[in-house]
């Protein structure tokens, strides 16, 4: 028994319970909402010639507002939802792919992410193959074959963070999964042991012993701000005390376990995309903006003199120690004022985390922020109608420089 065969059997046999179905419904609505919010993003025309799954995944991820699986540091839904929609699937296919991504991510472990891999893409390509494969009605043997066929695309690096490449490589993973599933259905052969071998070569530990339920162990975190999840906690902490900050600051110290800020690779961002991966900018937007929303993560917002001044005053104290997730420990902030006083803030769990799930009202507010009419479009959303919405919002295009020789 290989990991691929064990995962394929789990995905084929899994039957959803009410909690699984609720998670799938929320994941579908959240993924479609954040994709619709990106309709006017500059990446839209660039991604237009890509296949459906790649195009839809890239647009759903470019604002970095999609959900996250804390235990594996992977954006599960942004890979699996587009793969399912492109293959004509439903909640069962989503839960199969999402469950495989969570279990693959667990086999890869924190060390894989800490080494610089973009785990959403590395675990995402084989998982997308399962999501699309279940949608296409593949049996366990062909699901295992599809995962093996997706292994060549199981890549992605964190150096992409802060550029279009981050969302595009997520799109490549989703598309690779759909392609692999279709090839397996057509009769292509592959050795399922390829998945186990790949896992070992990228620092994972293959196993056939993983939780049978729930579909996604630990649940999914819903983002309240459109930026890297490593910024959600400090932003939320500062928003709780910003009304106590009177006068000018002389400095801001952020103390946090080192691993929890691993993705924040831009200390002095100059663009909106870089600002989504910056602890100093997390401090700046939390203090300057009433709500750190889409307008806070533009090139103009990051370039504000007030933001640049604040970022220069931020010191990040990265505490050493073993890290397993982005929510290990807590974040503590000290804001030193010119009058000699200081304001302190601490937070362990940000709003939207699995332990602090968003309320119905908070979700509706998030969906409303994604564009006029979006909450109404999402009401009673089905997988078939979601596919129609994505086709309408992000239609395929053939007239593009990408296709020129």
UniProtKB/TrEMBL annotation:
Residues of the MmgE/PrpD C-terminal domain: 225-374
Signal peptide residue numbers: none
Residue intervals of the MmgE/PrpD N-terminal domain: 55-196
Gene3D superfamilies per record: 2-methylcitrate dehydratase PrpD
Protein family (similarity comment): Belongs to the PrpD family.
Protein name, entry field: MmgE/PrpD family protein
Organism: Streptomyces olivaceiscleroticus
Phylogenetic placement of the source organism: Bacteria, Bacillati, Actinomycetota, Actinomycetes, Kitasatosporales
